[in-house]
Specification:
There is one protein chain. The protein is an alpha/beta fold. The protein folds into two domains: 132 residues, Arc Repressor Mutant, subunit A; 213 residues, Dna Topoisomerase Vi A Subunit, Chain: A, domain 2. 43% of the residues lie in helices and 17% in strands. The protein has a six-stranded mixed β-sheet with strand order 10-7-13-12-14-15, sandwiched between helices. Strand 8 and strand 9 form a beta hairpin. The longest helix is centred in the N-terminal third of the chain and has 22 residues. The protein is globular and about 75 Å long. This is Type 2 DNA topoisomerase 6 subunit A. Its EC number is 5.6.2.2.
């Protein structure tokens, strides 16, 4: 069976061979690109995440307006083929600067990123499989998990207080051993360090993952892998506001923008362990009033198919009714240890029983 690197190399070569075949047969070269328009992004109830529909567009060398886009895609494909062949990687920023030396250029990095995503969806591979990496690192992980990166074994409990950093190339990382029963992912690094200091990893036999806000693709891939390969339940502990809800839901059901790779990133069985409107009331938490943009966003979530179950509808409507939101750190009102000693045990007991 071919590994991901070999599959990527085969698909990249196949794209070039397809163009050459058209040329040698005196045909106008064309590339079939699946559509990423909103009308082609569908929520799949069975898979429980967004997927791309069957619509696609044709980019043809016979269309003067499309020649540049095809050329840009082929230049990036050739660049990626070289990266994968030599087992190297490049950041998206490096790709943009390398392109300055090509015969076709990009107006800005956003344009090169978009063409890179077009290549990703056309080949059905993630950009990481093609050797392209984002600038940001993945999340921090703390707990009894041993991984292997190449010839090096790393234990996330012995990697220092900041823990093990998930690399963008997470699919090349092997899970060697673990001694945990669950994963608790928290939105902020402030809460991550609080849980590490209070030894929540011991108390809950858990990996603690610091998401650093919106989870990077590598982080989402890590969570999916530990859920499926290690059979560990995933709990997401975020702020009690529409943005915290969204960060959690992107982990659970993926994003519309990444519908073409959600099968690699979404973890539909992950559970929300974060602050809810009910918690705000029951724990009498310090709050801030909802802003107009918060209210607008909550109403948008009510129309989003990912939030259609009773739990989300009830909590969103209740938050709109009380007009308040709260951060994870608001539990500090009762002492720094309260979130570990009282709140999380009660929430986990509620979810797991």
């Amino acid at each position: 069976m071919m590994n991901r690197r070999e599959i990527a190399l085969q698909k990249l070569k196949g794209l070039g061979e397809m163009i050459l075949e058209d040329v040698t047969q005196d045909k106008v070269p064309r590339i079939k690109v699946p559509s990423r328009s909103t009308s082609n992004i569908i929520y799949d109830d069975k898979k429980r995440h967004y997927v791309l529909g069957e619509k696609y567009g044709i980019r043809s060398m016979g269309n003067v307006k499309q020649i540049k886009k095809i050329a840009q895609m082929l230049y990036i494909a050739n660049f990626c083929k070289d990266l994968v062949k030599r087992n190297k990687t490049a950041t998206l920023r490096e790709l943009y600067y390398v392109s300055e030396g090509w015969d076709v250029d990009f107006a800005d990095q956003q344009e090169s990123n978009i063409i890179g995503e077009d290549l990703e969806v056309t080949l059905g591979m993630t950009r990481e499989d093609l050797g392209l990496l984002p600038e940001e690192d993945g999340a921090a992980v703390y707990g009894e998990l041993t991984v292997r990166e190449g010839d090096i074994e790393i234990n996330a409990l012995k990697a220092g207080k900041s823990g093990y950093t998930i690399p963008p190339t997470i699919d090349e990382v092997e899970f060697v051993d673990h001694d945990v029963e669950r994963v608790i992912a928290v939105e902020t690094m402030g809460m991550y360090h609080r849980l590490v200091q209070e030894k929540a990893y011991k108390k809950f036999d858990s990996l603690i993952v610091g998401l650093k806000g919106q989870a990077a693709r590598a982080t989402r891939r890590f969570l999916k892998r530990v859920n499926e390969e290690l059979n560990l339940p995933i709990y997401i502990c975020n702020d009690g506001d529409p943005w915290g809800f969204h960060i959690a839901m992107v982990i659970i059901s993926g994003s519309a923008k990444l519908a073409h790779v959600n099968h690699e990133l979404a973890t539909p069985d992950a559970k929300f362990l974060g602050v809810t409107a009910t918690d705000i009331i029951n724990y009498d938490l310090p709050t801030d009033p909802l802003k107009d943009i918060d209210i607008l966003r909550l109403k948008e979530l009510l129309r989003d198919p990912r939030y259609r179950d009773n739990f989300w509808k009830k909590e969103i409507k209740k938050m709109l009714k009380i007009g308040k939101k709260a951060e994870q750190q608001s539990f500090s009102k009762y002492g720094l240890e309260y979130v570990v000693d009282t709140y999380l045990p009660e929430k986990l007991d509620e979810i797991e029983t």
